[in-house]
Amino acid sequence: MEPGILIACFALVAATLLFIFYIEPDASDSAPHRSQLDHLLERRDTIYENLRDLKFEHRAGKFSEADYNEMRAALEKETALVLAEIETVTGGVARPQRREVASAGAHAVRDKSTS
Known about the structure:
Elements (H helix, E strand, L loop, with lengths): L2 H20 L13 H24 L5 H26 L13 H11 L1
């Protein structure tokens, strides 16, 4: 085996071991688990994205009218269930429009820009 390749292999192993054992994890790596509301908002956003994609693909001719209507109805039913669950979790408080806007920092930035 060539000495250059051998040195490169040892350097790679040494770098890997240093990375695994000596680099401290970020505080965000040990952040608490997401709340139920976060999960529901993410699910709602995913369903909305799926509905947009479905509509686009239907217009592109990838789905028949019957298949499109069936899949759209299923996604709309799932959306209604998720929205009802969000209402239950928030106690009927108005739903956040997007997950990013729900943070307090986003409200402060938006309020300053409108002043």
